[in-house]
Amino acid sequence: MKARIVLAAVLLFVISTSFVAPRVSQANEAAAWEALRNGDAILMMRHALAPGTGDPANFELGDCSTQRNLNDAGREQARSWKPFLAEHGITEARVFSSQWCRCMDTATEMDMGKVTEWPSLNSFFRDRSSASEQTRQTITNVNTLEDGAPVILVSHQVNTTALTGIYPSSNEGVILARPLTENPTILARVMPGR
Questions:
Q1: Count of CB atoms within 10 A of residue 8's CB?
Q2: Is the Cβ–Cβ distance between 112 and 82 less than 8 Å?
Q3: What's the sign of the alpha-carbon dihedral 131, 133, 134, 135?
Q4: By residue range, what is the domain housing residue 47?
Q5: Which residue, 17, 32, 178, 189, has fewest beta-carbon neighbours within 10 Å?
Q6: Does residue 74 contact residue 106 with C-beta atoms inside 8 Å?
Q7: Residue 161: Cβ within 10 Å count
Q8: Edge-to-edge, what's the strand order for the sheet holding 115-117?
Q9: Residue 80, in any domain of the structure
Q10: Residues with Cβ < 8 Å from 41, sequence gap 6 or more?
Q11: How far apart are CA 7 and CA 49, in angstroms?
């Protein structure tokens, strides 16, 4: 009986730790930031904190009052990116965002540069049938960008998970190597304050 309890505890430990994302070494994270600065990577992030799940039944794309929006903590999270990026040598960026208000507000509050709407970054939480098409379009959009300032994509959990397999926290970013593919190289997971 005691052996079964010990075995069960060991199995539970192995199972629970197998779902924890591996930590990136500081050297690898430094290389990821360098790649982002040099245009050899992009930062894809989930919007800042917007309490709840999905969107209300009366959701309308052009009407923020019908959407789940950033709260004060979410706005503060979004603003925390500017000094965090500056610590890593990034003071301006090309920012592309989902058209959802919580993403546009995150992108705007980051204050890293002009924000451009990319419909391929829009949430497909309600209708997963467009997931593959939107993911492929995002990959194409990134891969056809000209050289320039670092690239930041502000999107949703479902979009980030569809591309990377990672379930990001609110306001968490993933640095991905360019060119993007359907099985991208993940260089680091990053978030201000972590």
A1: 10
A2: yes
A3: positive
A4: 25-190
A5: 17
A6: yes
A7: 14
A8: 115-117, 94-97, 151-155, 41-46, 173-177, 186-190
A9: yes
A10: 32, 35, 175, 176, 177, 178, 187
A11: 39
Helices (H), 39-100: 72-79, 81-87
List of the chain residues with pLDDT < 70:
1-26
**Residue with the two structure tokens 């009366």:** 58
CATH of the domain at 61: 3.40.50.1240
Q: Which long-range contacts (CB under 8 A, 24 or more apart) does 127-135 make?
A: 128/158, 131/158, 131/162, 132/162, 134/159, 134/162, 135/159, 135/162, 135/163, 135/182
Structure tokens at 171: 């306001």
Is 20 in a helix, a strand, or coil?
coil
* pLDDT of 191: 97
What predicted TM-score, i.e. pTM, was given to this entire model? 0.86
131-143 and 157-164 helices, crossing angle to 10°: 80
